[in-house]
Amino acid sequence: MFFKQTDGLPLNTYLLIDSSGQTRASYDKLHLFDLDLPGKVRLMESEFSRRGKELHLPVDTPIGRLGMGICYDLRFAELSLFNRLRGAQILSFPSSFTVTTGLAHWEALLRARAIETQCYIVAPAQTGKHNDKRSSYGHSMVVDPWGAIIAQCSEREDLCFAELDLDYVDEVRRNQPVFEHRRSDLYSLYFNEKREINDSDLFHFGHLKIDGSQCFYKSAHCYAFVNLMPLLPGHVLISPLKEGLKRLTDLNDQTTADLFILTKKVEKMLCQIYQTNCATVCVQDGEHAGQTVEHVHVHIIPRKEGDFGGGDPDQIYSKLQNHDAKLNKEKRSPKEMAEEAIFYRKWFEENLEV
């Protein structure tokens, strides 16, 4: 299904509709197939559709937790691995492979995704001739977590049925615990996720609690929030979600990557909003480095020439060292902080591909 966007080309969207007719989830195709071989073939999806901008978590359904993809997304193993790592038991790929690519790759790709994720694969496939230059392969298929084809249609209009056994998913994963054997000390997958923030949320920040209304970005492992006592306009903080992470060396590789990638995104936002190309990015790692809250956090402060009345721009570090200790310093109201957070949230909603 294509959904028209007010700002340009439509999105190729997969809707998950439940038995009562309610839309439970939607997914926008992430990968677009663009191929232009002069004199041979030209198929440019980017000329008539836009790519999706966000990863979506698997959805709970009556038959199991479902991860969603569309057609060309099947070729990118990272998306399937993301869904498996986020709890998927079933992956679904409605598709329209050409006859040429379908004959060569359709079954191989479906079985590969099933084996490497240990999920059921449910893959409905369009079939038939579209025009003189394009025919779709068909062969809708269901593959089990061991890689066996348990249901398949032909190239004709057809219908097939399969039983999905979640106990079998558990058995395959128990007998082949490959995800427990991954060498995360040598390699890892980073997924650029944006999670929903509720104003009623409370985030742990050392001995403090940060109200959800003061947060403006939440990723898989970290969150960004406005400052109670900013040194300069735009001074914000980023911290890991997990409790008990006092030092930078306490972070695992995934959280470390997430922390600094989110830092980069937030810095870009602040520099655009405050019209500067400079920022101080600082981690006070430990008591003698000026850390007053025993939880890893990154300060991001947009900078401009003379922002402390002239003089050495490095005086920011002495101000950072001492500003938390000044308990009598005027603190901002929750209302003011929430308004700033809302402003930043809206910026990210309008700039999803940052």
TrEMBL record:
Pfam families: CN_hydrolase, HIT
Important for induction of apoptosis (site feature) positions: Y317
Binding-site list for substrate: N227, Q284, G290, Q291, T292, V293, H299
Residues at the active site: H297 (tele-amp-histidine intermediate)
Protein EC: 3.6.1.29
Catalytic activity: P(1),P(3)-bis(5'-adenosyl) triphosphate + H2O = AMP + ADP + 2 H(+)
UniProt domain CN hydrolase: residue ranges: 1-166
Keywords: Hydrolase, Nucleotide-binding
Hydrolase is among the record's keywords: yes
Location of the HIT domain: 202-310
Annotated motif Histidine triad motif, positions: 295-299
GO biological process: nucleobase-containing compound metabolic process
GO molecular function: bis(5'-adenosyl)-triphosphatase activity; hydrolase activity, acting on carbon-nitrogen (but not peptide) bonds, in linear amides; nucleotide binding
Protein name per its UniProtKB record: bis(5'-adenosyl)-triphosphatase
Organism in which the protein naturally occurs: Meloidogyne incognita (Southern root-knot nematode worm)
